Amino acid sequence: MEQGFDLEAALRRLSTSPRRALLYAGGSGLLALGSNFMGGTSALLSLAPGPSRSARLDLVYPVAGFKRCVDPEGGSFSFIYPARLLADQRRALLLRERMNDPLLERSALDAERRARRAAGLPLPLTPSLSVAAFGNGTPRGFSLGAEENLSLVVGALPEGATLHSAFGEPADAADKLLRRTRGGTVALVDARAVRSTTP
Questions:
Q1: CB 151 within 8 A of CB 127
Q2: More confidently predicted of 35 and 166
Q3: Would you say 116 and 124 are in contact if contact means Cβ atoms under 8 Å apart?
Q4: Is 126 a domain residue?
Q5: 125 pLDDT more than 70
Q6: Mind listing the pLDDT tens digit for each residue in 56-83?
Q7: pLDDT band for position 8 (50/70/90)?
Q8: Is the pLDDT of residue 126 over 60?
Q9: Range(s) of the domain holding residue 62
């Protein structure tokens, strides 16, 4: 007579118990979820994107193809971007050098920025260093297609001014900023104004 598979006998041969096997399987499952193994966590979170974004899980895991970027210094902005874009390492290195350089730390510009931040005032516009930057990860000059990037520049407006009165239409403002900072080497894909209900 043919016998079925005896799980307990197999576990005894491996010198383990059903409890230990369940602990290993459960631990492996949690590790796979925590590491987003093969995109499993992203797929689960994408089943309910609203609650996943409300819980800000999109800061760590892509949800429905997008991740979130939040201002680390004061929470003055939050936006979602395509998960295929990578953080700009040049910007991160420049920021780290700036933070670690004692001459820059003692400079008048940084002293003014620290004083404005302590007083709760907006920081002046610094177009040479964007607040957040993401790109498609293609090294310069090696792209077979178009290079794509996203940069966020934050600055203060004069008293009583609006974005529209200061810069005009979003596409015109973005085009001016690109020409001023990058010259003629880039092309604007899209620019639009979005009103946010959060401060």
A1: no
A2: 35
A3: yes
A4: no
A5: no
A6: 899 899 999 999 988 866 677 888 888 8
A7: confident
A8: no
A9: 39-83
- Between the CA of residue 122 and those of 18, 116, 164, what are the distances in Å? 60, 7, 18
Answer whether residue 7 is part of any domain.
no
Secondary structure (H, E, C), the chain: CCCCCCHHHHHHHCCCCHHHHHHHHHHHHHHHHHCCHHHHHHHHHHCCHHHHHHCCHHHCCCECCEEEEECCCCCCCEEEEECCCEECHHHHHHHHHHHHCHHHHCCHHHHHHHHHHHCCCCCCCCCCCCCEEEECCCCCCCCCCCCCEEEECCCCCCCCCCHHHHHCCHHHHHHHHHHHHHCCCCCCCCCCCCCCCCC
| Within-domain flag for 30 | no
The mean pLDDT of 6-29, rounded to a whole number, is 82
Domain count, the chain: 1
- What is the pLDDT, as a whole number, of residue 1? 44
